[in-house]
Amino acid sequence: MSDYKLYIDGELCEAASGESSATYNPANGEKIAEVAKGNAEDAKRAIAAARKAFDEGAWPRLSGKERSDWLRKFAAGIQKRQAEFAKMEVLDSGATLRKANMVDTMGIVQTFIKFAEYAEKVPEREELPHFITGPKPAPNYLLYEPIGVCGAITPWNFPLIMAGWKIAPALATGNTVVLKPATITSITALMLGQVAAEIGLPNGVLNVVSGPGASVGEEIAGNPMVDKVAFTGSTEVGSRIMQIAAKTVKKVTLELGGKSAALVTDNVNFDLAARGVLWGTFFHNGQVCMSGTRALVYESVYDEFVEFLADKAKKLKHGDPLSFGTDLGPVVSELQLKNIERYVQIGKKEGARLVCGGKRVTDGDFAKGYFYEPTIFAEVDNKMRIAQEEIFGPVLCVIKVKDDDDAIRVANDSIFGLAGAVWCEDLERAKKLAERMRTGTVWINDYHLLGPEYPFGGYKQSGFGRELGVHGYNEYRQVKRIHVDATGPEYRQHLTLKILMGEK
Ligand code: NAP
Ligand code: MG
Predict the structure, then answer these.
(1) Whole-number mean pLDDT of the chain?
(2) 332: CA distance to ligand 1 center in Å?
(3) What's the gap between Cα 393 and its chain centre?
């Protein structure tokens, strides 16, 4: 028996195989719960339920106001269990309680509320200029319609938020959904299934199936009954999903990796810029797709800035993620810890200078979990692997640049293009720099600030499509054009027929 069950066709249920898998707390290695382990068969059942709810159910035909009411109910259902959601996000994924409260739970509620607002306010119909063919112009208009069954596949770093970014716009626009969370952090996504059951969301409208990417994930990407797949995760898996989805020409949106640059110009407030760079890199231990893990520091301030950064980084406090005083919790898993250790060795071999960190935290109880020191490399060349590849851990590369042109050249010399920042007190100059960066988001004198009304997504191999904002809303809508020949039979020109048949 599992503690957290799949949610298919309105029912909380065990996996068809009866299997479950244990999930562990990365802060101390202790088992938290048994989670139902779905496979392709469960995914097929969930997809069939979502298909039926879309083709035969009321959901896609509800008014925007009605769907908006459901989304608000959903948000209230999450809010009612906010403390439990936050706690489970901490235990399952290693988030700090501060992050789980101020980012994860608050973020998902705000996302549902924003998309509820869009469902009410964003028009589902748009008039176009008339088509002029004869004595009376022909009205043309657009209908924005849901796409159909949407698959959502999410990563382990922000389990709750990533699920919300997909479920909320998909449901707001009248689609039905099958969500597959990352295996090592499935609990809060399965709790969203519980909330759907608690509020009595119509059967099949939302389904949640935990289980391996290779079975559940690939079934969602390949099943011909699925119309769209929204994926957040690694560039490698995103590319594979695109290939599988290509066979049935599904719409795909991908939010992938990043190696974002924070430009520290020669005109900064040292203290604020240093704290900003640390926040940009070490928030959630750098396990954030948009982390600013390359600091491009101008040569005139470089040495002083590196020293300043290291000094501040050493003051970040590891601790029990359930305590509000903790800055840094564990990284998500042993596998991720090993990956970080491997990259730190690579950095040393490549000749970067280790300024601080560079090892696991093992004193006392920390030895039981996967804690890693905030790590800073200076004298990094942008060509090094540590500057080009996504480490997804608390590792900052500080790179020296000469001037604005050099900074832009280095910033854009990456296969990724997700985000970035410019630290500069001259805002006009900062905006010019921001506009030259080839990324989907740039912050000036800030980092990580997202909001449900601002579109988020990548350039280059960071993916395509946008989440959040009206742009994100429209990723879940089809556009249908309707042309009306309103001239009446006596005047009807049939211009199109004349082209084919002349006057016959
Ligand atoms: P991942 O290995 O790519 O996994 C992401 C999701 O895909 C998981 O649910 C995983 O399931 C599933 N999956 C794995 N193989 C699959 C397959 N063959 N077919 C279908 N689904 C499959 O990524 P991760 O390690 O969880 O997350 C870290 C990555 O996500 C980083 O690269 C990061 O940059 C990226 N990310 C991007 C954004 C963004 O918005 N751009 C946000 C957050 C994270 P299992 O867990 O069962 O393997
Ligand atoms: Mg876990």
Answers:
(1) 96
(2) 13
(3) 17
Ligand closest to 463 (CA) is 1
Atom of ligand 1 nearest to the CA of 392: 31
In sequence order, what are the beta bridge partners of 159?
none
What are the tokens at 75? 């948000």
**What is the distance between the alpha carbons of residues 472 and 345, in angstroms, rounded to a whole number?**
39
| Number of the ligand 1 atom closest to the C-alpha atom of 212 | 47
Give me the residues paired with residue 375 across strands.
395
Ligand 1: nearest atom to the Cα of 254: 41
Using CA atoms, how far residue 135 sits from 52, 495, 503, in Å, is 45, 12, 18
Stretch 324-342: mean pLDDT: 97
pLDDT value of residue 496? 67
Task: Indicate whether residue 204 lines ligand 1 (CB < 6 A).
Answer: no
Provide the CA 136 distance to its chain's centre, in angstroms: 49
Residue where the block lists tokens 């479950």: 20
For the chain, the straight-line distance linking the first and the last C-alpha, in angstroms and rounded, comes to 74
Nearest atom in ligand 1 to 238's CA: 3
**218 Cβ inside 6 Å of ligand 1:** yes
Q: Token digits for 279?
A: 């926040």
Nearest residue to 237 via CA among 218, 260, 210, 258: 218
Q: What is the pLDDT of residue 120?
A: 98
Ligand at minimal distance from the CA of 239 is 1
The token duo for 53 is 């709810």
Summarize the confidence of residues 46-53 as an average pLDDT: 99
- Catalytic (active-site) positions: 255, 289
Kindly state the tokens that stand for 173: 């626009």
Q: Which residues does residue 222 pair with via DSSP β-bridges, in sequence order? A: none
Task: Cite the DSSP H helix spans in 122-204.
Answer: 159-172, 187-199
Q: Which pTM was predicted?
A: 0.97
Contact 394, 340 (CB under 8 A): yes
Which DSSP category does 440 fall into?
A: S
| Cα 181 to averaged position of ligand 2 atoms, centre (Å) | 12
User: Does any ligand 1 atom lie closer than 6 A to the CB of residue 214?
Assistant: yes
Q: Is the pLDDT of residue 493 over 60?
A: no
Q: Whose CA is nearest to atom 23 of ligand 1?
A: 233
Q: What is the pLDDT of residues 342-369, one digit of tens each?
A: 999 999 999 999 999 999 999 999 999 9
- Residue whose tokens read 């869009």: 118
Phi, psi of 143 (to 5 degrees): -115, 135
Convert 31-57 to b/e letters by CB count within 10 Å (16 or more is b): ebbbbbbbbbebbbbbbbbbbbbbeeb
DSSP readout, 262-315? EEE-SS--HHHHHHHHHHHHHGGGG-STT---EEEEETTTHHHHHHHHHHHHTT
CA of 24 to the centre of ligand 2 (A): 4
Question: 392 CB less than 6 Å from ligand 1?
Answer: yes
Reported as a pLDDT band with limits 50, 70 and 90, residue 18 is: very high
Give yes or no for residue 241 CB within 6 A of ligand 1: yes
